[in-house]
Write a structure and sequence with these properties.
- There is one protein chain.
- It contains six helices and seven strands.
- By secondary structure, it is an alpha/beta fold.
- Helix 2 links the parallel strand 2 and strand 3.
- The chain starts with a helix and ends in a 7-residue tail after the last helix.
Amino acid sequence: MATAAARTDRRIREDVLRELRRNTRVDEREIGVEIEKGLATLSGIVDSYAKKFAVQEAAHRVAGVQRVKNDICVKPPKSLTRSDIEIARATRLALEWDAFVKEEKILSSVADGWVTLEGDVPTFAEKDDAERVVRALIGVAGVNNRLTVTMTPDAAGPHRDIVHAGSSQREGKLAHL
């Protein structure tokens, strides 16, 4: 039985590595992948938080991966290093310029390259969009998304269920519709 499990883990690892090779946003040679009973542990060093997240998304797309432990470190080269003040300014501009984010109710702060988003947004989609915009910025080491979704189930109807299901699946939780 252990042999079958090892073979399955080996096959899943090969599939994750294949998915990373297809992903033009990352260099799979920078990434270590270990699989144990559906848990993918990712390691390595990348130069942006966006790449760290792209690797995690790629692993989640592979059949057999149930959970991802993302131990990838973000170390931007000197040319991509930004001060917290520069990241804070870029965060505000990115939120203001994104068509899907109503930035006026979102507070942002930056410490050691980590951006924290707080405030109220009407939908799970907008919560995800705000994080997506920020994690793509140069110099961001990570995002703490503490945005609260204010849409009530009655007001949202089926749209809320669909958006919430997608958000829950990305966070590794079970979606209950």
